[in-house]
Specification:
Layout lengths: L12 H29 L4 H24 L12 E3 L4 H30 L3 H4 L5 H24 L11 H20 L3 H4 L1 H15 L6 H5 L17 H28 L6 H20 L5 E3 L1 H10 L4 H16 L1 H8 L3 H23 L6 H19 L9 H7 L2 H15 L8 H27 L5
Antiparallel strand pairs: 1-2
Helix pairs in contact: 1-2, 1-3, 1-13, 2-11, 2-13, 3-10, 3-11, 5-10, 5-15, 5-16, 5-18, 6-8, 6-15, 8-15, 10-11, 10-12, 10-17, 10-18, 12-15, 13-14, 16-18
Length: 462
Amino acid sequence: MEILYNVEDKPPTGTSLILAAQHLLAALGAIITVPLVVGGVLGLPVEDIVVLVNAAMLVSGVVTIIQCKGVGPVGIRLPCVMGTSFTFVGVSIAIGFEHGVAGILGSALVASLVMIIGSFFMPFIRKFFPPIVTGTVVTLIGLSLIPVAVDWFAGGQVGSEGYASLPNLAIGMLVLITVVLLSMFGKGILSAAAVVIGMVVGFIVCVTLGLVDFTPVQEAPLFALPSPFHFGLSFPISGIIGMSIAYLVTIVESTGDFLALSNVTKTKLTGKKLSSGILCDGLGSALASVFSTTPFSSFSQNVGIIGMTGVASRYVVAITGAMLILAGLFPVIGALVVAIPLPVLGGAGLVMFAMIITAGINILSQTKHTKRNGIIIAVSIGAGMAVTVRPELLSQLPDFIKVILASGITTGSLIALLLNAILPDGDVVDFDEEDELAEASVTTESSVAEELATTKEVPSTS
């Protein structure tokens, strides 16, 4: 995909608003899902869950703006959407049952030092991500997101009412076809805003068919102020240890997202830039604890939007951050986005997430075609997808290992890093070199045979 707007470009205001809106539509559902799940499982009252959700949107907007525009050494200065991370769901629930929300937020605040301190070592860590590892990780990010898009496309989780019903599939297909056609044949804003236009078309059809539930919009408060330290803070040692492990996992995942982002935006990701991005991630998570919501990380799905539309402007995504702040202050806005039926998200999501896979394949295509590299790719992606599609594989392992390996992206990334470090890089024959050697061998044998034949035909002079 050609870049329509580069990282430093500033599209016209109207265009920027439309382009920013499609990032909002792609991210907002996931941003509010984490606090909804954590609050729901812990049995919090509705008003407390509202505090978690509003804070998630508000702080997501602030951290997204800082990540995009930068403040001193903080922020990667690339079009990166930030939001609440699913990596912290399991550990948050475990801490919450024993120490309440105060324990979750206090543990997350202290443990964010792991990410903040770790950010200063990213120039060194960056050396462990050559193209063979980078391409594998980016490909795995896309592959891991595909099942999510498929469930959205079908209308929910496997076994839920109406899953894969014909109306759901038809709506998802309508959105997918609209996005693809506009991306391929649209000009200017029609191509750049293909995702949001496709979702608007799908949403209108759903409204017409009576498939949109506006109850969340009616029940959402019109305006809400942030509530710092609403739940208080406590600092259980076990919670801090659990959160620290989750932050280490997030460093790996965010590194993969930033590598994918640098690829689709066609910018070089230096160790210093990576450090600034991870530092913003850690400080953003600390801010989330102060404002009463769960920790943050970068959002992979928005990388797919950039890859598909060619809009790499960080100023556009900074506007998305401003929209998220408004959604946090005016929850009714967020409720309207949440009302979008899942098949509408799925139709767009399939294309967006598949574009991340394409970005990974493009990186891998630039690496040498060797047996060593083939093994790294195969084993890493195989292991990552095994955990993604069959998380039950980890059911008998200790809890702290489950936290580390629960994400297929992390599992695959760690294996790729390990194999790249231990497999010998020398004395490995390239597949293409093998072919050349085989051809040379055949040629040599033919030449020898011809020479012997010639020798037999010419009489000896002795």
